[in-house]
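FAQ: What does the model actually see?

It sees only this:
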Amino acid sequence: MKNLIRLEEAAMFILALYLNHLLDYPWWIFWAFLLVPDLSMLGYAVNPRVGAITYNIVHHKGIAILFYLIGFFLFNMELQFTGIVLFGHSAMDRILGYGLKYTDQFQHTHLGWIGKSNGK
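And it is asked to produce this:
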């Protein structure tokens, strides 16, 4: 099942690359901004609950799609780009096994536990 999810996420990442290609930006801009959504992990400096909330908002694909669609209908390339980066980044994270977070600790995700500890 994990490989099927990774394959699905890889297809979504390719979609993000394609949508980025349609925008009038140099190709490298997407790659330069791809890790910016991980700044949302700074919420973990406050506590795991705040960290999970900030991380999940930024890594939620629905939010990414909303940004893209608002940008599309308002003819705003910056909002479209933001949505594409958020969507692509979230797909990339899920390919690597990083899912949306539970509020107890960073390693506890909707895809299971990250790392060797398996939540123990």
